[in-house]
Amino acid sequence: MQRTAVVTGAGSGLGRVIGRALLEDGWAVALAGRRPEPLAETAEGFADALAVPTDVADEESVAALFRAAVGAWGRVDLLVNNAGTFGPTGTPDEIEVAAWRAAVDTNLTGSFLCARAAFAVMREQDPQGGRIVNNGSISAHVPRPGSAAYTATKHAITGLTRSISLDGRAYNIACGQIDIGNAATDMTAGIATGARQADGSVRPEPTFDAGHVADAVRYMANLPLDANVQFLTLTATTMPFIGRG
User: Fold this and answer.
1) In degrees, to the nearest 5, what angle opens at C-alpha 125 toward C-alphas 119 and 128?
2) Closest CA relative to residue 80, chosen from 181, 10, 8
3) Which family does it belong to (predicted)?
C-alpha cells in the first residue's frame, strides 16, 4: 500500500529536506507552504509529490490541503507539522501584540489546524490510524533571550503533542515531537556567525547538517503504529543548550 504524508513548511529549510527525504523513500507527499514557486522546487523530479500552496493559519486553506491529499491518494498516513516562524524579538514589553498573535497563529494554531485535519482523516480511513510528528524546538525546553513569542508557542506544541498522543490511542493515531537545536538552514544561518547569549554577549554557535533531522523523522515515520518516539531532541553536540543560561 502506498504510504502517504503531508509536510508543512515544505518550501524551504527543514520542511524541504524532510519532504524530499520521504519522497526518496517512496512516500507520496503533499508539500504545503505559502509560496508556490519554492514548493515546486521541492517537488521537482518526484512523480509522487503534490505541491499545495497553503496558509496553515487559515482553517479553509488547511482543509483544502487535506482534501487534495486524500483526493490524490485516498488516505493520509503521516503529518509532519513543520511550518513555523521565529516571530518578534525583544523583551515582553517590546513585542507588539499583533506580532505575538501572528506567531501564535502560525506556530500553534497552524499546528493545531493541521493536526485536527489529519486526525479526522486518520480516524475514519481504513486501515484506521496514522502518525503525527510535531516540530518543536529546544525552545520547547529553554528560551533564547528575547524570544517570548516563539518560546511560548513551542512550549505549547509540547502540550499539543501530549494531548494528541492521549486522544489518538483509541484510533491507532500516534503522535511524537522532534526538538531541534541549530540544524543548518536559512532560518538559522545567523547563528553560525553570532547568536545572542543569556549573558548578553553575541557568539557564534555550532550547527549540524539538516539531513540528520530528515533521518530522525524517517526513523519516527517508519515505526509501526504500535511503537512511538514520544520526544526526540537533536542538537549540534557542542551548542550551548545543556547549561544554557
Assistant:
1) 80
2) 8
3) Belongs to the short-chain dehydrogenases/reductases (SDR) family.
d(CA 170, CA 114): 19
212 CB-contact burial (10 Å; exposed 0-12 / middle 13-18 / buried 19+): middle
Residue listed under C-alpha cell 550551548: 240
How many whole angstroms separate alpha carbon 98 and alpha carbon 109? Answer: 15
Whether the CB-CB separation of 86 and 100 falls below 8 Å is answered with: no
> What is the tally of helices (H) and strands (E) in the chain?
7, 11
Taking Cα atoms as reference points, which of 130, 134, 119, 30 lies closest to residue 81? Answer: 134
Per residue in 142-162, pLDDT (tens digit) is: 988 899 999 999 999 999 999
**Direct distance between the N- and C-terminal alpha carbons of the chain, in angstroms, rounded to an integer:** 49
Contacts of residue 73, defined as CB under 8 A and 6 or more positions apart, other chains included, come to 2, 4, 28
Longest dimension (CA), the chain: 55
Is the pTM for the entire model greater than 0.90?
Answer: yes
- Assess whether 171 carries a catalytic annotation: no
84/211 Cα distance (integer angstroms)? 19
Q: Which of 27, 66, 112, 150 is catalytic?
A: 150
What mean pLDDT comes out for the span 180-206? 82
Burial degree of 145 (CB within 10 A; 0-12, 13-18, 19+): middle
3-state secondary structure of 230: coil
What is the three-class DSSP state of 109? Answer: helix
